[in-house]
Amino acid sequence: MIKNVHGNTVDFLGAAIIAGQYPVGASLPPEPILCEQLGVSRTVIRESVKSLVAKGLIFTGPKVGTRVLPEEQWNWFDPDVIAWQAQAGLTPEFLRDLQALRQVVEPAAVRLAAVRATEADIQALTAAYLGMKKAIEEGGDYVTHDMHFHTGMLAASHNRMMVHMSKALGALLRTSFEISTTRKDAPKASLPLHKAVLDAVVAKNPDKAEKAIRVLIEGAHQDMEHVLSSRRKLPTLAGPAKFIKAP
Question: Low-confidence residues of the chain, pLDDT below 50?
Answer without folding.
Answer: 1-2
